[in-house]
Amino acid sequence: MSFLQIKNLRKKIGNVEVLKGIDIELEKGGFLVLVGPSGCGKSTLLNAIAGLLPLTSGDIVIDGQVVNDLHPSQRDIAMVFQSYALYPNMTVEENIAFALEMRGVAKEERAKAVAQVAKTLQIEHLLKRRPSQLSGGQRQRVAMGRALVRQPRVFLFDEPLSNLDAKLRVEVRAEIKALHQNTHATIVYVTHDQIEAMTLATKIVVLKEGMVQQVGTPAEIYNRPANLFVADFMGSPAMNMLKGKVTAGGGIALFGNGGVTVPMPPSISSALPAGKDVILGLRPEAITDDGLVDPTARAIAHVEAEVTMIEPTGSDTFVTGKIDGASFTARTRAEVVVELGQTFRFAFNLDKAVVFDPETGHRVV
Amino acid sequence: MSAAHETVSPGSARAARYVIYAALIFLALVYLLPLYVMLSTSLKSLDEIRGGDMLALPGDPSIAAWVKAWGEACIGVSCVGIKGYFWNSIKMVVPAVVISTLLGALNGYVLTKWRFPGHKLVFGMMLFACFIPFQAVLIPMARLLGAAGLSNSTAGLVFVHVVYGLGFTTLFFRNYYEAFPDELVKAAMIDGAGFFKIFWRILLPSSGPIIVVTVIYQFTNIWNDFLFGVSFSSGEASPMTVALNNLVSSSTGVKEYNVDMAAAVFAALPTLFVYIVAGRYFVRGLMAGAVKG
Predict the structure, then answer these.
(1) Which residue intervals define the domain ABC transmembrane type-1 in the entry (chain B) (predicted)?
(2) B189 closest CB neighbour out of A72, A89, A134
(3) CB contact under 8 A, B187 and A82
(4) Among candidates A55, A26, A42, A43, which has minimal Cα distance to A154?
(5) Which chain A positions have a beta carbon within 8 Å of B188's beta carbon?
């Protein structure tokens, strides 16, 4: 049985329905990431789980207990806020111990708990300081300490890394991951950053306009996105979306009349009726130069296209090709010789293809 | 240096600065002149005052007038000085300031962090109270105090000043708490702190600057108030301002300007004291570090 259940959760703010019937389940020790563009309702959902917002309808169940009407402090949850929300008038030590103090834990016990958390997070030398004397990363750590010390049933993280600079963000992200691996805590984590979602989650929920688009492991979300929105939102650079038509031979004709027909692996072509309009989704890493082609791939197509942009990242180079007005981005080796305006021979690995119905936006296969 | 400075030649910039400082110093002197006259007159003898040179330094400074003003001057028919009235004012101003500041803080807290339907209307009405002229409420207030049995008492004056000050103190604290991060309140709620715990432990300790502002404002207003004092108290229960008026207007024999001046300085001292002491705590940045800095 799952540890955290959200059943048909709805939330109206004024006349706007912000959450339109959310169903999510999370097992004990799971790391659930709620991801989506701003305004998708992910923070509202987190606040609802925390009990900071009343529900319009639906249930939130933690460990078998319906917590809908419980005060935030009685839900046995802890939350790390985007702004960290450290109490400015208290030292780090007092900040971490505050929740225990409010719960009437004896002073010696509090001190012991604080010391242990401080050791885990390596902030022992900061205990006597005030939040204003800490750097961004240190504040972040204190905010986590404040959550950890309670040993709650569920941890809630509200975009905890968005106020850190890029380098620190990667470091703290790794720390959060390590923390989860070591403590087996149950975590719900909100972010708009799809890389954070991919790296941290055991389960990702993609939200859009108050509705769940897809629930799955990072690999499922990445490789088998349920619809065009998820495919476009997850992954950077975004997945290439190419309009095409299924041919009688089971391939897909791309780039209009003067284009090419790419073959499909049998697993995909068997599900496609000939003549159907489709959108072919291919991640940039599935379009490469010849030298990077996966030797185990069964369906490879070569496409010659004009190069319209070259973006070296150091490790690889992203090359944008264009045929008949349709652009696509390929990930090639850094060593490959490409030139702007020249024709380049791209290799399409169609084993990795996903096919969408252009009308519904859903994945066909 | 910004580009704006480069368009002005250093010479003319310096000249402009001299003009500005000269004007400022002149205005400061004009402003300080009455204080100087008060102090020097209070230290002079009556003979010297009759000499007529108001701006001269006292030839033979003496604090006799101060002693007399404090303990012997006649106010009405009793000649015991102003000290009793001074304490009256203290007994009125301290509770009135403390209560109105605390209630204002509590109101500001509720109006920003525990919003209820109609909170804007309630706040609007409290603001409106700030603009009702004192004179308009004198008679209703007198009736109310009479009905409550608080007429001619310090407690009555405290009540009047708390009620009248609440609009302002609420305004101060509401605007301050409006900028106070909601997430701190949410965090405290999750941590298990209740309504008053959050107020005492989180909000109030972070309110240093606004408390100082409110206390200075309320202290000055209440201490200097004359209208309520003269309307709702009489005789022994009068506050300092009313007693000072009575002292100056008591005309038995010679007019003792030096005693009047000394009494006036006594009346002004507490507000001066509050500015000097509390002004030091106008420390900015007490909130730094609550959120990302």
Answers:
(1) 86-278
(2) A72
(3) no
(4) A26
(5) 87, 98
> Domains in chain B, please, with CATH?
3-62 (no CATH), 83-279 (1.10.3720.10)
Residues 61-90 of A with CB under 8 A from B: 71-73, 77-79, 81-89
Q: Any chain A CB within 8 A of the CB of B289?
A: yes
Q: What number does CATH give the domain A4-233?
A: 3.40.50.300
DSSP-H helix ranges across chain B? 3-6, 10-42, 46-50, 64-71, 83-113, 119-130, 134-148, 154-178, 182-191, 195-198, 208-224, 227-232, 240-249, 257-279
Tell me the ipTM for this assembly. 0.80
**Do you know the residue count of chain A?**
365
User: Tens digit of pLDDT per residue, chain A (365 long)?
Assistant: 689 999 989 998 888 888 998 999 999 999 999 999 988 889 899 999 999 988 899 999 999 899 988 999 888 899 999 889 999 989 999 999 999 999 889 999 999 999 999 988 888 899 999 998 998 889 988 999 999 898 899 999 999 888 888 888 898 899 899 989 988 889 999 998 888 999 999 999 999 999 999 999 999 999 999 999 999 999 888 899 888 888 877 788 787 756 777 888 877 877 888 778 888 889 999 999 888 888 888 788 888 888 999 999 988 999 999 888 888 999 999 888 888 989 998 998 888 889 898 888 898 87
| Sequence ranges of the domains in chain A | 4-233, 240-356
Distance CA A72, CA A77 (A): 7
CATH code matching the domain that covers A240-356, chosen among 3.10.20.310, 3.20.20.120, 3.20.20.70, 2.40.50.140: 2.40.50.140
Please list, residue by residue across A8-40, b when 16 or more beta carbons sit within 10 angstroms of its beta carbon and e when fewer do: ebbbeeeeebbbeebebbbeeebbbbbbbeeeb
How large is the greatest C-alpha to C-alpha distance in chain A, in angstroms?
A: 78
Q: pTM for the full model?
A: 0.79
